[in-house]
């Protein structure tokens, strides 16, 4: 089993190295003019192109949809990864395990059992909408036995805003009858001082996993705060997007290679138009729209509740549910 994992990792590294050598302009139908338009929009490599939809590419590059479709297919086959046959996909799905959110209705919204491994789950919403509370609850629940909705793993908490609170972890742990100190020990917290540091921490996680740490959940709270602060100028949007896309690739790779869950938060300002256009469209665009990604839009609801809406899911209906932020973490009832 361990040997097989190593082989798969090597294979995946090779594929990635190979793909990195190829440029956008190597794709039939993509000339330098189209390539620079794509780069300006944050699509800088074959992966970025491969995960696009033909209509989106058609609009972005100013080409017909047939040309766009051909270019995307070419990019996919040149990369030779990520797009598996149906039976391979089914096999991969068999290995997926879940971490309960603490709320049955939120679990159902996510397909039944909560946040899944091999995927990135993004929670975005205004301040106080519950993103951090959900992250803390998941950090605890990851450690639960399988029959209680966990995967008996450790969590990594990449904290960019100093919002990690050990006391909250203790409270949430106590509420499920777990030993609070033990639970805290199994959460590896790292403060990320800037976006470069945030990126570097992923290497550290890879090392820890290779050293045998059973890390099954990686939390980045917040995914975007440093990127926003550092790339605040008008002309820096494309650079920010590019760096963020690269970071998301690394997170997805981590999730795939180690069959772990990734949970990221993303704050939406009071006037979302400033950053995102539509408030239900978070940062990250097409990359966060990758097939294995779940996006939850969180907002305040009636009677102190919170509402989660599942956005853009490729395989689940766009639904909403209600949940509560309680001393015990995320719950169905207040
Ligand atoms: P930003 O990080 O500011 O964007 O917000 P966020 O979405 O991360 O909000 P967060 O998850 O921190 O939610 C804060 C809210 O959680 C508070 O306003 C409270 O309603 C609730 N909350 C936090 N701690 C507790 C607690 O111990 N008990 C209860 N009942 N609610 C809590
Ligand atoms: Mg927060």
The gist of it:
The chain is α/β, with parallel strands linked by helices. The protein has helices spanning 2-21, 32-40, 46-50, 54-61, 65-79, 86-94, 104-109, 131-141, 166-175, 180-185, 195-210, 225-230, 237-258, 285-288, and strands at residues 98-99, 115-116, 120-125, 154-159, 187-191, 215-221, 261-267, 293-300, 306-311, 320-326, 329-331. Helix content is 44%, strand content 18%.
Task: Give short descriptive properties of this protein.
44% helix, 14 helices, two-stranded antiparallel ribbon, 11 strands, globular, 334 residues, 9-stranded mixed β-sheet, alpha/beta, Rossmann fold, DNA polymerase, domain 1, binds guanosine-5'-triphosphate, single chain, binds magnesium ion, 2 domains
3D structure, described in words:
This protein has 334 residues and is of the alpha/beta class. It has 2 domains: 2-78, 5' to 3' exonuclease, C-terminal subdomain (DNA polymerase, domain 1), CATH 1.10.150; 96-331, P-loop containing nucleotide triphosphate hydrolases (Rossmann fold, 3-Layer(aba) Sandwich). The protein has 14 helices and 11 strands. A 9-stranded mixed sheet has the order 5-4-6-7-3-8-9-10-11, with helices on both faces. Helix 4 packs across helix 5, helix 8 packs across helix 9 (166-175) and helix 11 packs parallel to helix 13. The longest helix has 22 residues, at 237-258. It is globular. The protein starts with a helix and ends with a strand. 38% of the residues are buried. The structure holds guanosine-5'-triphosphate (GTP) and magnesium ion.
